Every structure is written in C-alpha cells, then in structure tokens.
Protein 1
Amino acid sequence: MIVTREKPLDEILGYIWPFTKILIAGCDGCVHPPRGLREAKTYALMIEMAGKAKGKQFECIPVTVAKQCDNNIVYTSLQSYINEVDAVLSLACGVGVQVIVEVFPDIPVFPAQNTVFMGSQPKEGAIFYEKCRACGECLLGYTGGICPVTRCAKSLLNGPCGGQVNGKCEVGGWVRDCAWYLIYQRLKKLGRLDLFEEFRPPRDQRIASSPREVGGLVR
Ligand code: SF4
Ligand code: SF4
C-alpha cells in the first residue's frame, strides 16, 4: 500500500480558495486509507460546508478513477469533467496528483493527502509499518527477506551497529526491533548465516537517485 495522511482542511481550503468549481478526484488504486468515490463525496461535502462557514460558495463534483497512476485511465475518467471545473483536488498519492497535471496541464491540481511511505499492516485496522524504499537494488535475497535499507534506522548493510541491545534499536529508545537482529535470526533459522557474514559493498546511489525511469515499449 502507499500510505497517506490527509492534509488539514485549512491547507486544502487555502489551495482552492481562489476557485469555485472543484473536481474532487478519488483513486481506487493502492492509496491507503481508501480514497474512492465515497471519500470523494465526503470531501465534497466537507469543503462545501467549510466554505459556506467562511462565506465562500464552493461547488464540488466528486468522482473516482480506477488508478490515478495511469495516464490513459486518468484521461478517460476525467476528461468529460475538466472543462466544467476551475481546479482539481486529488485524493491520491503524490504520483496521482502529478499524473493529472501531466494529462491536463491547463488546470490547477492540488493534493489532499501527504504521501508517507510504502508499507503493510499486520491486520485490518492495525498500524502501517514502512517496509520498502524502492531503492532499485533489492537485497532481500541476501537478508532473509527483511529490508535493512528501510527497517534499519541507519540503513546499514553489514550487520548491526553498537546501539543494538537485546534485539532492539537504539534509535527511538530501544522500542523497535533492530532490523539486523531480525535478519540474523531469520538467516540462522534458514541455515544461511553464511549470508550474514558476506560483505555487502555500499549501494550504488545512482540507481536510487531520482528521477528514475523504467521499462515501457512506447513513449
Ligand atoms: S532492499 Fe529494501 S528498499 Fe531496496 S527494493 Fe528491497 S525491500 Fe525495497
Ligand atoms: S540498532 Fe539495529 S536497526 Fe537500529 S540502527 Fe543499529 S543496526 Fe540499525
């Protein structure tokens, strides 16, 4: 999931204040919490009510898009609305916002969410934990399937630092598990402690430097 947090309503109102007709674009893709049609309708209502309370009459059109990270889907889903509105408020992650900007370059587009990280939750309703930073050079095959880049607070590649105590990480006060302790335990269980001892050279930061591009048959 791409984990997001909603922006304060006042920040959103600040973006859209100069405009009247706002397209509220939800996304049915991997943004979390869910931000589909139901949430677009809720945002529409909230914005209209907050506007009214401050003396401004917004007119919001709530819609949703199967996934805002696909230019074609964004075009086919939103093109019939674009000429009717003054601005778009996207409920997707930062990727979705930028795709709408690319597809409809003549209209202002604003984010309703702060995009936080890629992560997972142990069960429905539980906390989300960051698991991957999309570093472009995945090490999980050598580290027992536990990411040191993301889950070690210092992104160390060759074992734990001196701050590890009883399997806990010094960063944050020995509350979270030390990633390298988890990696060690996992590799031991798999009978692959040889991997723990193997030297891993510094990562090639050029692979992880942005902006990145990958694949595709056509431009
Ligand atoms: S090493 Fe970690 S950050 Fe890099 S791709 Fe693998 S899981 Fe993601
Ligand atoms: S204690 Fe473990 S997780 Fe924390 S910074 Fe050191 S090696 Fe990384």
Protein 2
Amino acid sequence: MGYLVFQPQNAHRVRVEERDLLFHVPTTSLFEIDETDGAVLGFLAEKGRIAEADVAARFAGHDPADIARRLKGLRDLEIVTDGRAPSPERPPIRIENFPLSTIVLNVNTGCNLSCTYCYKEDLDTPSAGRKMALDTAIRSIDLLLKESPDREKYNIVFFGGEPISNLRLIRDVVEHAEPRFAALGREVNFTLTTNATLLTPEIVDWLDAHRFGLTVSMDGPKALHDLNRKTIGGKGSYEAVATKARMLLSRYRSRPVGARVTLTAGVTAIHEIWDHLKNDIGFAEVGFSPVTSGTMTAFNLNGDELLEVFEGMKALGRLYRDEAIAGRNIGFSNMHQLMQDLYEGRSKALPCGAGVGMLAVDHEGTLNLCHRFTGSEMETYGNVETGLKRKELSAFIEARADRTDKGCATCRIRNLCSGGCYHESYAHFSDPLKPTYHYCDLMRDWIDFGIGVYGDLITRAPQFFHTAIAPRRAHGK
Ligand code: SF4
Ligand code: SF4
C-alpha cells in the first residue's frame, strides 16, 4: 500500500439541505455522495497526505473492499494521487484555426436613445451614426465562410447602436445570405438586440418571417427603466419601449423573445424587474447583466450593491428551482445558462467564443474580439478586406487561456468561468489578459448555488432539462 495525497483543486463539496454533493472540478461533473464517501473525503482533506494503511485503519469498522473501491474511485478522478501532480486537464491551447460560427455586424454606430450608462465607445447620435455598407457586410460573410467552410449552422448577429436604425442593410444582408447559405446546404440564423422603439408591426412580421432571435434591452418597471434608458432629449423611454415590446410579443411567433436587463448603480431589485418583464410585459426569458466595470464608474454597482444583486439572483434562483420542480419554467436566463453548462458537463478552456468562434465587424470592416470592443482602443485583428491577423489573434487567446501562475489554475470554478469576460477585464483593469479577479468570490458563490439547484433538479425534476433546457439549446442560446 502506498501514500494518498489529496488534491483539493480537483474536488469541491457542496451541501444542499440533506444532501452532500461532490463537484469534480476538471470535468464539471457532479456526484451525490453518501455518508461514508463524505467521511473518507473529509479524512483525506484533513490529512492532506496519508498512508493508505492508515485510511484502512481509520475505517476499520467498514468492509475493507468497500473502502478500497471508494478510494479507487477517488484515484480515478484524481481527487487523490500517489503524490504525483494530477495530469494536466488539457494540453496548452494552440489556436491554429478559427472555427467561426458567428459574425457580429455593427450596422450603425448611431442610436436613437441616449442611455446614460451605455458602454459603447463608438456610440453616436442618430444623425452622426456611421452605417455599415452592404459590401462590408458581404465581405464579412465571405470571411465567415472562408475561415469556417464546414459548419452546418452559422449565425449573423446585427448589433449597434440601434440596429433597426439601419434596417435597409439588415434586409439586404438577409436577402443575400438566405439563398447563399441555402445553396451551400447550410443553415443561417439571424439575431438582433434592439431597444424596440423603432419597431412597427410590418418590421416585426418581417423579422418573424425570417425567424430572427430577438432580445429587447429593457430595465424593468417604469421607475427603474427610466433611471437610465432615456431619449436623446433626456426623457424616460419606458412608455415607448413597453408599448412596442407588447406589440412585438403579441405577434411574434417564430422564436421566444427575451429581455436583457442592465443592472447599474442603485438598480438591484431583481425580483421586481423579473416579475414586471416576465409577467406584466410577457417576455419568455429575462437575463441580467450586472455592470461592474463600465468606463463611467458612477454607474458601476458598488460592492454592497453587487452583493445585493447576487442575493436577489439567488432568491430568484430558488423560485426557478421550486417552479421547475412543479413543472413550470420562469424564464430566468442566467440560471438557465448555468443549468445548461452543468447539464452538458461543459469544461471550458475559454470563457466565451470571442475571437475563436465569433468575431465582431465594425462599420468600417475592422475585426474585433466581440461586439463590446468595437470602437475601443483594444487591439483589432485585421479587417474584412485584408483578412484575419491570425498570429496576433491566436497569441491573445493563447495568452489569456494560459492559467500558469494565475489564481484560476486552482480555482474550483476554473472550467466554468475560465478567467471571465475579456471585456470586463479590459474595462476594469485596462488589461484584457488579466482574469476578472474583481468578483471571483461572488462568482464562486453563484456557481455553488447553481450546483445545489442543479443537484435538486436532476433528482426531483429531470424532465425539466428536456422540456426547458434542450429547446433553448436548439434556439442557439
Ligand atoms: S477569474 Fe476568478 S473565479 Fe474565474 S476562474 Fe479565475 S480565479 Fe476563478
Ligand atoms: S468577451 Fe465578454 S462581452 Fe465579449 S463575448 Fe466574451 S463574455 Fe461576451
């Protein structure tokens, strides 16, 4: 018998009411463990390094074969080793190809609203808006297909400013793309995030006919929405947005429509916002984006507010769980996403697809990591005329993915968070290579909470994953 060395970076225990769950960090898998497993794990964690014979002695009252079987299970998961370091989770990332599935077109830098917190660094008033030309959009699609010719599905995302303010281009792109992808035997999907104000029944029907995935930016009931989402003249935009959103929802049939809420300083009322958008307005899903790193620091949630936001998200998460167990889906996107990641056992090397599966093209055709970087001072990666700066882009992605000497190397949520959003790091630390260290504890707490909910649902409402999570995946969310 040899020695057993506990590897704390690979195991994380979460207690959910009466149940003990073991989260296997390298694979993001979850196991329910019994009292003996718990006692063995607790003993190994306490000792750190111990002779196998001493473990057998400690559990002398148990069947030795049973204890040996449990230890083998822990060895197989590399939660204990014989003293050697666990095998690397994955070889260092090397990016040679860019399997693009998504291209984001910034069709107009202009916006007809003037939301006080807007992060877009290339945002202009409507009259000063710089619009993308059709030729640039077509070259973007050429690039998508050149870099990644063999996919079955592609996504074209229209972003702004307010994308509907350049509807002419959107219509032309759809007219160009649909027959082009059909001739290749490929599927193309379109998505768009809008402030809703420019929608008309005719536009909605056209978007519906082309099965656009739509998200409306809306921040909640009037008092909260109007705090920041204002017209150019400085008036609240709630009445206009709510009217248009109701019109949209009353006639949109092809896909569920979601709302995206930006949480800024002073806006932490998660349940109230969700209730209004889901139950009063009628969105299928509501997702929250807490702002921690905007360029205008006055709008960032402060530490206490961020704490309140996460507490509110957990309270809504409990409602999500209870309703899911009763067979209902309350449409809380953040929770859905976490359930999907855990259900699919995703072990992510990268936080998102930016720069690898997705690129954003600004109005001039310059290539950016994602839509949040257009117009910023962040390095760009070529343009649709001259092509992708492959070397520079892979160097960035590889450097950010390298966890050596970073806190992420041993973090228990490293394969779900993967260092966090590049833009958050860029905005908070002026360094996109740095992990989003400014709210790790909150993220870990949120993931622990999600693991608990997942553990509950998988045993008490497994059908929820088929009825609510799988269709969401099919919609590309
Ligand atoms: S950024 Fe923080 S929470 Fe995320 S993986 Fe790194 S250490 Fe963990
Ligand atoms: S870098 Fe951040 S904002 Fe951009 S796609 Fe990734 S997670 Fe989203």
